[in-house]
Design a protein that fits this description.
408 residues, elongated
């Protein structure tokens, strides 16, 4: 009884969409209800020959219908009918939930036909499509082929772990790219800073510093944008850490979120000194250049840098003990906080450092990275801008240290 009800639901969803989109001259609710019910009956009878014969009969009827209407070129409705048959069949198996989920996906794809056409033909460029294919290959082709296990001195090199780090960092930048592309920077400097911080807080800091240099009268706006971009690093780092070492992620949660919250609050305080203009376009100097969503060379550089930091961290931990993680965090954090975070997670996984050392190491990496960004702000922007950015970091790290001391 439950399987038949689910089959009726499947037929109703697909049929309602087709009838609403095409009209009465085409297969509609009643047709798709019957097709789904036939599929469910085939599943309940458990006779493969009957299912094949039924599908063949339905396909023949659909072919006759298709060639009777000469003005039609596509076969979307016919393919949807065949899919409905199999979804009804699946409703009688332990995969009933999957059948309903796939039905929802199919109906959504059918409903958003025009939007999908515009997306593929007009919105997505050939370069972006090719880069998307490369990104998918990175995840679903290369990763499964990599050997499992640890290799090299101190067993520092784990191909799958390094590649997982490449996937994590690339995924965040990939999502940030398309958010920037589709939402745009026209919503104001604050949105641009949020998206820029998601893609790369260092790149965002450099872009805003350049804008401040070109438009020094807007120093306060660029200062606020830089604070927002770097506050976003907190949730971003947590995503990376949680994916690799949940224990370290939970231990760092309060500290990183406190830094992010205080950074955003400080940005709000800075913004109170100016009156926002509704609908104002983002200043031209702050725009972050949109590059390809996924490039092979930067991804490989991420992986190589992570492998080097991992080697340094494991060698130092083996020779000098867990306290060496602080030096590793300070050196590596000046270039890439995510790489250091994953390195600390790996050291923690192999019991080469304790959980408190790992949390402090994350804070040290952030501090080292903040020093570099403050220098970038001063050199690319101005001394006044650099000092203001550094002040924001001091406030953020003060909150992080306070929370860390309270938790410990």
């Amino acid at each position: 009884m439950r399987a038949m009800a689910e089959a009726l639901l499947i037929g109703f969803l697909v049929g309602a969409q087709r009838e609403a989109a095409l009209g009465e001259r085409y297969p509609g609710i009643r047709d798709f209800l019957l097709i789904a019910l036939v599929g469910a009956l085939c599943g309940l009878l458990g006779q493969p020959w009957f299912a094949v014969a039924s599908l063949g009969a339905i396909t023949l009827l659909l072919a006759v219908f298709h060639f009777q209407i000469t003005e039609r070129a596509g076969i979307t409705t016919e393919m949807a009918a065949i899919a409905t048959f199999w979804f009804g069949y699946l409703a009688t198996t332990p995969y009933a939930t999957l059948a309903i989920g796939l039905t929802i996906v199919v109906v959504t794809a059918l409903e958003f036909k025009q939007w999908l056409h515009r997306l593929v033909r007009e919105t997505i460029t050939a370069g972006e499509f090719n880069d998307t294919l490369r990104f998918l290959a990175l995840v679903f082709v290369i990763y499964p082929l990599l050997p499992a296990g640890d290799f090299g001195p101190y067993h520092f090199f784990s191909p799958r772990q390094v590649w997982l780090f490449v996937i994590l960092v690339s995924s965040i930048s990939y999502v940030g790219y398309f958010l920037t592309k589709f939402l745009g920077e026209s919503k104001g400097l604050e949105l641009a800073s949020l998206l820029g911080g998601l893609a790369s807080s260092t790149a965002a800091t450099a872009a805003f510093a350049k804008g401040c240099h070109e438009e020094p009268e807007k120093l306060r706006e660029y200062w606020q944008a830089t604070l927002i971009a770097n506050a976003v690093m907190g949730p971003r780092s947590l995503i990376v850490i949680y994916a690799v070492a949940p224990d370290l992620g939970r231990a760092s949660l309060a500290m990183l979120m406190a830094m992010a919250a205080v950074g955003l609050a400080f940005a709000w305080v800075v913004s109170r000194g100016r009156r926002p203009a509704a609908g104002r376009e983002a200043p031209a100097g702050q725009q972050i250049e949109l590059r390809n969503p996924f490039r092979v060379l930067p991804a490989l550089e991420f992986g190589a840098f992570f492998a080097v930091i991992l080697l340094i961290g494991k060698a130092a931990a083996a020779r000098m003990g867990g306290a060496s993680a602080y030096w590793t965090s300070a050196i590596g954090g000046s270039v890439n906080v995510d790489a250091v975070s994953v390195t600390l997670a790996d050291l923690l996984h192999h019991a080469q450092i304790s959980l408190p050392i790992g949390v402090v190491g994350v804070l040290v990496a952030w501090a080292s990275n903040a020093v570099v960004k403050s220098a970038i702000a001063a050199v690319a922007g101005s001394a006044a801008f650099g000092w203001r950015v550094a002040t924001g970091f001091v406030v953020m790290f003060g909150a992080g240290v306070a929370v860390l001391l309270m938790v410990r």
